[in-house]
Amino acid sequence: MIAYLFQPVRSGEKSRLWSARIRLDGWSKLRHFPLHVTDKRVADQKMRELITELERETHGVGVPKATRKAQQTPLLEHHAAFLAACESAKLSPNTLNKYRHSLPKLFERCGWKSLRDVSAPSFVAWRERSGLLPKTVNDLLGSMRTMLLWMRRSRLILADPLSEVRKVHNDRLGSFRRSLSVEELQRLLAKSPRHRAVIYQTIVYTGLRRAEMNGLKWDDFKLSDAHPHVRVPSSISKNRKESIHHLRPELAETLRMARPAGAKPDDFVFRGQMPRIPTFKRDLAAAGIPFEDARGRRIDLHGLRKTYGTMLAAAGVSPRVAMELMRHSDMKLTMGVYTDVAQLPMIAETARLPSLTLPQTPAVPNLSEGKSLAKGAQMRAQIDAQTGVAAGLNLTPSVASGQSSSLCIPLKDGALGHEKAPQDDLRRFPEMERAKRLELSTSTLARWCSTN
């Protein structure tokens, strides 16, 4: 560690106030700290306290001085510094206006005057009684957390007090805006005035946003090239990246006819002509298109950008290419929010699947009947085996004739020298017992026939 006191020299003159140069272990260079005192002994004491504070801050012990000071600063002053940082970062004007107007209203409604007042319970309590839509309160939460993230990076706060607050579930997320079908688009272009129809066709074929359309100049359109295209400069693009959009022949021809004869390269193409919601509603009504459908989904100017994404999906464009054409950083945004599933050819795509059928099978016989027939055949085979008929045994004529004539005459009870077993008993005997009784009866019959 290096630490010493000195009096800075300004314009060749030594200052009356003392300063300190300190480098702790792990620092790459010395750092200058003004002490704002004229007494060297007081300056030495302040330097020792400063070293202790810096060491505690470096090792994560205690609260840094900047954080303690930020706790006492009004929240509106932090908001002004946050807006200055956003302007230096070259954020879009719409984003700056959102932070400039929405955050002070949130401070007032939640009763936040300083950082000590910002807490999760106070925000949740206001959200429950606000009566605002889920999308609105979620946007306010996102804006506030963006400001708190900037304060954390600036070491004004140690942690985000709203980090545990979760967004409200929004059932209509991604579905509050719908896209137009091809027939509706054709009617809109036919019924709208010529200068607005050019705007609608340009958005549908390029997916450009309102602010990007307002910033385009004639020099950005290359209509006479072999492949006509439009260049969106990084200065007006939402993601701050330059992009090239190739134009359909229909759109290129429309723009050639719409360009004024004396138009200069630096002249804006669509500035001052972009329709507002009331004007767009009139064009929709002239084309017989409802602004809001039965499901509560609306169609606005940005809905034409969703129509562009839906047409890409319906045309079979790969998701990665569609994501690049839409200039999205997340595939979920392209496939989920900017693709209207209701406009996709579900039936036609399902019809492309191969035909799969089940083979026809014969009728299955009744299993209980099959078992009874099998038992009957088994019983007949056993009887034939006992009498010798099925096996082809040679019997004497007297035996054969006696057997056939005796079997044709019904026998009375007791004629065979034994009593017939009761029917109920036969039901209780198993199958083997029945076979034994049948064997005894046939042998007795054979003896009776041989003696007579």
Secondary structure topology:
Layout: E1 2-6, E2 9-10, E3 13-14, E4 19-23, E5 31-34, H1 40-58, H2 65-72, H3 75-88, H4 93-110, H5 120-130, H6 134-153, H7 182-191, H8 194-206, H9 210-215, E6 221-222, E7 229-232, E8 243-246, H10 249-258, H11 277-286, H12 303-314, H13 319-326, H14 331-337, H15 346-350, H16 367-387, H17 397-408, H18 423-428, H19 431-451
Helix pairs in contact: 3-4, 7-8, 8-10, 8-12, 13-14, 16-19, 17-19
Query: Care to count the β-strands?
Result: 8
CATH fold label of the largest domain: hpI Integrase, Chain A
What top-tier CATH class of the largest domain fits best? Mainly Alpha
**DSSP summary: helix tally:** 19
Question: Are there runs of 5+ residues with pLDDT below 50, and where?
Answer: 388-421
Please outline the major beta sheet: 3 strands, antiparallel
Quaternary state of the chains: single chain
If classified by CATH, what would the architecture of the largest domain be?
Answer: Orthogonal Bundle
CATH fourth-tier homologous superfamily of the largest domain: Intergrase catalytic core
Overall mean pLDDT: 81
Structural class estimated from helices and strands: mainly alpha
Radius of gyration from the alpha-carbon trace, in angstroms: 48 Å
Strand content: 5-15%
Strand order of the largest sheet: 1-4-5
Outline: extended
| Ends distance | 137 Å
- What order do the SSEs take from the amino end to the carboxyl end, as H and E? EEEEEHHHHHHHHHEEEHHHHHHHHHH
How many domains? Answer: 4
